[in-house]
Amino acid sequence: MNETLQDLMERRLREMGKRRGRGENISLREAYQRLLDSTNDRNAERVETGEEQLGPPPTYEVFRRIRNGHSRISDATASALATMLDVPIEDVYTAAKIRPRLGRFTLPTRADRLDDQQRQVVLSVIDAILQAGETSAEDEPKATRPRAISRSEAQEARRLRVIEQALPEGQAAYDEDDDPGDDDDPLNHP
Predict the structure, then answer these.
(1) What distance in Å separates the CA atoms of residue 108 and residue 126, rounded to the nearest whole number?
(2) pTM
(3) What's the chain look like in SS3?
(4) What does R_g of the chain's alpha carbons equal in angstroms?
(5) Spatial contact of 15 and 8, defined as CB atoms under 8 Å apart
(6) What pLDDT sits at residue 163?
(7) For residue 8, what pLDDT is reported?
(8) C-alpha to C-alpha distance for 188 and 190, rounded to whole angstroms
(9) What are the average pLDDT values for consecutive 10-residue runs of the chain, which has 190 residues?
């Protein structure tokens, strides 16, 4: 089954509405309130046990954007969405096309000998591997996107085009061999 985050959200809102005896979806606001209530309950339990409280959940706007088609989510948002929709987090990861979590990754003991700089290299390799895995077929990697050019670069490109159009065919507007800074150019010396 190729269920997207939007499909998962719509299905669960419909199912949660039917469970309440309604023949319609529950609203996104009602589902979000469920998340807020759950977070408050868990924070109350943590206060009683002396544990650190959970941070605030993602905003309602995050879930509205997911419902409208946004599909790139963080782990915190995935967890909150699972709570809000009352589904296992694995279902959210599958719908978001995020690799499932395999548990804590621990480096071998011999890695304890790495200095801070080497540890940063290892972490950057891990980040690069994860980032490469997150790039979907529809997403174009940032490295291949054309960069925006400045106004002065655009003006220079237009100027060169005009000059090239005015020159006889086969002659370039600017030859690298005729670089004004070239020491072999007799006109370049006073």
Answers:
(1) 15
(2) 0.56
(3) CCCCHHHHHHHHHHHHHHHCCCCCCCCHHHHHHHHHHHHHHHHHHHHHHCCCCCCCCCCHHHHHHHHCCCCCCCHHHHHHHHHHHCCCHHHHHHHCCCCCCCCCCCCCHHHHHCCHHHHHHHHHHHHHHHHHHHCCCCCCCHHHCCCCCCHHHHHHHHHHHHHHHHCCCCCCCCCHHHCCCCCCCHHHCC
(4) 29
(5) no
(6) 63
(7) 92
(8) 7
(9) 87 84 79 89 86 85 91 89 92 88 85 90 86 56 51 66 62 48 47
- With contact defined as beta carbons under 8 Å apart, do 84 and 34 qualify? yes
Q: Which two tokens stand for residue 79?
A: 């967890």
User: Residue 36 in contact with residue 56, Cβ under 8 Å?
Assistant: no
Q: Which two tokens stand for residue 1?
A: 């089954």
Given a contact cutoff of 8 angstroms between Cβ atoms, the answer to whether 54 and 46 are in contact is: yes
Of the candidates 48, 4, 31, 10, the residue with the CA atom closest to the CA atom of residue 138: 4
Q: How far is CA 117 from CA 31, 52, 126, 159, in A?
A: 45, 32, 14, 47
What is the residue whose two structure tokens read 């529950």? 26
| Number of residues written out for the chain | 190
